[in-house]
Amino acid sequence: MSKLVTPKRVFFDTNHLIEMSNVLLGESRVNARRVAAYDRLLSGLCSGEIAPVIAFRQPIEWHSGGAAAAHQIAAVLDRAPVRYLVGDHLLVYMLEALREALRLYGVSASNLPEVLYDITARNEFNHFFGEQLLRDKGQWLGQQARIDAKWRSVRHIVDEQVNVAVLQRTDIEVERFAMYEVGLSQTQDGPVRRGIGPRDDVIGRLRRTEPFLALLRQFDIDPENESVWRGFELSNCPALRLGSALWLRHASHQKGRKADPNDADDVSFVPAYVYSDFALVEKSMRHLVHSSDQNLEKCVFSDAVHLIANMFKRCTEVK
């Protein structure tokens, strides 16, 4: 008799979700081996062996192909009985840094929310940031920390959250991409050119991020206390650690190249790579993740066949 297997939390890049949707509709053009792998993933979603993880901005990315395409992707993910959302990457970074600051102050962080949350449960992540920051920093957070009721399904997220964003898409997306380009330029001219490492880059950014400093003060932590920054262990902040290393490599690689709007989304999915058990991404992102953190080589894949081989290996061994 087989033992119960804990569901694997898996992040799927949008292109792989499209392929899974095509397989489900009988419209896939990939080779038979990959079709079989996608079919196994689809059956894993249905059986509850796989609990999909959705990155904060992914539904908006899905909608770029039109409402019908977004609904098809939602239908793939809604096959799973349990589905997770991961918070916005900037807020995840702040939460990890706050947790580390509380550790240094000897204060319990048990009341902080989880980064991953079931889509049908109360959104404790956004409620936490709403309570701590929105009252004073609502304009800064904008739509990112929208306090919302629990969702009924991924389709519900697409129909409600995305449709609101699409109404304002032009201004929001143009501004967001402009900020991404500015960030690239500043990183290339600063940390990349001067050879600053991830930890020093993170500390510098945190000390310049007023909403984070305000968050520290809400917990009676003095941002001017140098012991907070001297003792800060980036290893205790997995998403922030990967995000910083990946961003520095990405900025260096992009120097002299035209910025791509899709990259602005891809680099924001970092928390999903870290807080999932496995991730299925594009080849370029897999290479970037692996070169930034070799520990993720057995977790982040770009080929569904390789993902299947690694993800279900332990399942077949547990009898």
3D structure, described in words:
The protein has a six-stranded mixed beta sheet with strand order 4-3-2-1-5-6, with helices on both faces. Helix 15 (283-292) links the parallel strand 5 and strand 6 (300-301). The protein starts with 7 loop residues before the first strand and ends with a helix. The protein has 17 helices and six strands. The chain has helices at residues 14-25, 32-47, 58-63, 67-77, 89-105, 124-141, 154-167, 169-194, 198-208, 210-218, 226-230, 238-254, 261-266, 270-275, 283-292, 304-311, 313-317, and strands at residues 8-12, 50-54, 84-86, 116-118, 278-280, 300-301. Mean pLDDT is 81; it is low at 136-145 and 315-319. It has one domain (8-317). It is of the alpha/beta class.
Q: Give the count of structural domains.
A: 1
Q: What is the ordering of alpha helices and beta strands? A: EHHEHHEHEHHHHHHHHHEHEHH
Low-confidence stretches: 136-145, 315-319
Rg estimate, integer Å: 20 Å
Q: Which structural class matches the secondary elements?
A: alpha/beta
List the helices and strands and how they pair.
Elements lengths: L7 E5 L1 H12 L6 H16 L2 E5 L3 H6 L3 H11 L6 E3 L2 H17 L10 E3 L5 H18 L12 H14 L1 H26 L3 H11 L1 H9 L7 H5 L7 H17 L6 H6 L3 H6 L2 E3 L2 H10 L7 E2 L2 H8 L1 H5 L2
Parallel strand pairs: 1-2, 1-5, 2-3, 5-6
Antiparallel strand pairs: 3-4
Provide a concise account of the structure shown:
This protein is an alpha/beta fold and 319 residues long.
